[in-house]
Each structure stands twice: as C-alpha cells, then as structure tokens.
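Readers of this paper often ask what the protein records in our data store actually look like. Such a record has a labelled line for the sequence and another for the backbone structure tokens. Nothing more is needed to write down the fold, since each code stands for a local backbone conformation. The remainder of this section carries one protein's record, kept here as part of the documentation.
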Amino acid sequence: MTATPIANAAEVSTRLQRLRHLRMLWRFVAPYRLQMVGAAIALVIAAGCFLVIGQGLKRVIDLGFMRGDASALNHALFALLGVIVVMAGATYVRFYLVSWLGERAIADVRRAVFSHLLELSPGFFEQARTGDMVSRLTADTTLLEQVIGSSVSMAVRNTLLGLGGLIMLALTSGKLTLLVLSMVPLVIGPIVLFGRRVRRLSRASQDRVADLGAYVDETLHEIRTVQAYGHEAHDRRLFSERLQVAFGTALKRVRQRAALIAAVIVLVFGGVGVILWIGGQDVLNGRLTAGQLSAFVFYAAMVAGSVGAISEVIGDLQRGAGAAERLIEILQSAPQVTAPALPIALPMLPEGNVELDRVTFFYPTRPGQPALDDFSLRVHPGEKVALVGPSGAGKSTVFQLLMRFYDPSQGAIRIDGVDLTRADPAAVRGRIALVPQEPAIFASSVRFNVSYGRPEASEQQIREACAGAYAA
C-alpha cells in the first residue's frame, strides 16, 4: 500500500526537478534587468487598467443606463476609453520588451551552447549525433525563446489578473465569490493530470525530432555513398518511418493539450453560467444591481480566462523544461582533453622531435578494442616517415593523438621533449599542419576556405597560396 505514495512523491520530485532546469535561463536573462523592470511595470499598469474596466462597466450600466443619466454615461464612457488607451500603450511596451528579452537571451544561449560545443573533444561527437546537437541548438532554443518571450510574461500577467479579479469579485459579492472558489479544484485537477502527460510527451516529441535531424544529417553527409549503392529508396522508407514516429508522438502531445484546454473551457465557462444564473436571481430580488452583476461576470470571466491561459502556459513551460534539460546536458558535458592548470610551454623555436613511447589507446566507442597497443615511434627533425598498414591499423589514430584530439590510455606522446598531456592543446595544434586526404570545404567564399588556418592573411598571400596549390 505504500508503493503508490512513494511513487507519486518520486514523480512529483522528478517533475519539479525538470521545471528547475528553466532556472538555467536566469544567467542569460539577468544581464538585462532594465528591460525586465520596464516590462514588469508595463505589465502591472496593463493589468491594473484591465481590472478598472470592470468598474467602468459597472458605472456605465448603473449610472448611465439604469438611471438614464446621459452626462454620467458620457463621463463613464470617456473615462473607460482613456483607461483602454493607457492599457493598449502599456501592453505594447510589455510585448516589445518581453519579446526583445526573449530574442536577446536566446541568442546568448545559442552562442554559449555553440561555443561550448567547439570546446568538446572529438570523442564527444563519436557518441553524440551531430543532427541531434543541431536540433538542440535550433529547435530546443526556439522553445526556450517562447518561454522567455511569451510564456513567463503570460503566466505573470494572468496570475495578476486572476488574483486581482478574485479581489474585485469579493468586493462585489462575497456569496458569489465563495461559489467561484469552490469551483477552483474542479479546474486545477485537469491541469495537473493533463499537464503531467504533456510534459512527458513533449520531451519524447523533441527527442523524435532530434532523431529526424540526425538521420538527415548522416544521410546527406554521405550522399555519395547513398547514391553509389542505390540506397535512395531504402533511405526514403527509413526516413518516412522515423517521420511517422515523430508525427505520432507529436499527435499524442497535441491531443493531451487539446483535452486540457477543452476540459478547462467546459469547467470554467460552465461555472460562469451557474454564477450568472444565481447572480441573476439576486438582481431580481434586489440584492445586487445590474451593474454589480455585470462587473462580477466581467471579473469572473477574467479569472476564468486567466486560469485557462495559465493551463496552456503550463504546457509551454513543461516543453521549455524539456528543452532546457537537453541544453543543460550539453553545457554540463566536460571536454575529455583540457589544458592543465599550469601548462608547459613548447620550445619557442620548434625542433621537430616527435616521440610516441609505448602508447596504448582505446576509442571511447570501442573500449574493449585497442586502436594502438604498446606502440612506439621516434621521428627526428627533418625526417620523413610514412605509416603503412591495412585499414584499422591505427595510422589515422596516431595523427589524432598527435593533434591531442585524444589522450593515450597508457604511455606518453612528446613533441620536442614536452609530454602533450602537460601542454596546452591549442599550442600543440598550432605546431602541426594536417593535410587530410579528403579536404573539408566550407560553404563560404574561396577567401574563407584558403585563409581558414590564418584568418589574418592578406589578399596577396591568399592569391599566392592558391597559385602554389595550382588553384589560381
């Protein structure tokens, strides 16, 4: 009998932990406190104006319509119009500042994630799919932009309107307010139930979209192999299968969100209908004025709309929490190869001594199969050495270790007498020029590609390099 409460407590703890992932956004939002303060002030003004509209409606009905006072009606309507203009201006300011904040903060998130990805060792990308990383950097950050630029603001706005509306309800009719409060658990129940399902399906949906991106990236990257083996039809079928899985997962999430919204609408506005009927009886019996009932219905609709909007925002926050969790996984991934706290500098004048001393190395994805096993090699200055062997013998591995993309599992690698594990990887790579068998061509200009290793090169130097490579 104790298993269920424990399981429920663990599930609640997990949900709260995932929502806490949204806290990672604070360090990207915090530098823009001025914009946050401006948006908050505008939000409070707009919410206050919205609450005042109910009182304006009450005065229009009681003083203007019920008493037939044209002057009072005119004053009430003009005052109401002024409040609406102020509310519109404040809403514009709030929307602009919050949207600016969302775009700016997410640009900073993307910069931080991309910068961190560039620092991760090649071993990380052996286990992580490039398409998945691209999906996190684009699709997941877009979800977070919605959280910062819309969802949080909507949550705060509707919370203020809901609380303010409840206060105004209590001031208008205590009896009807108690009736409204009695309906709150009926609305909160579906939000909790469906919100839990939406969060779970949101994370699953994001993972399936990432699978699609990874598959497309791998297929297009090896398009020559795909076409050489006539694999197009098979790849179309595999992509369609993955697409259908992603569609099915997204559809489940959409159904849950739609059910959540529909349930809230039925419960909230059904309750408003009941309140309207009871309030109408009070008006007929003289316990309420028509203006008071109109104001009460206005505030009740405001509270209902706020609760409905918050229920939808909860779904966005759950999706944002899933996206934040996936980005945190990247930001918390530590590079396998790092510079020591006090790196040893390579000799100022390079000599060209290269030594591999009884090196053993395992790739992270093949921990049981050594790529190099007790391998030793000495290359003297000016000496030319060719490594010859079958595929998988470890030729490329030697160069990857020399570039310090990886560190050896055993043994030592030295350049000019300096153990590479005690040197700065950037300094090591600055001493070595690697010319791969298949050169990488970036989708940019000739200038960008030729000067990639020396971005500061002049146009004349770039032209000379092209001429030297017979590419002029």
Summary: The beta strands are 354-362, 370-379, 410-415, 418-419. Residues 232-284 form the longest helix (53 residues). Residues 1-8 have pLDDT under 50 and may be disordered. The radius of gyration is 32 Å.
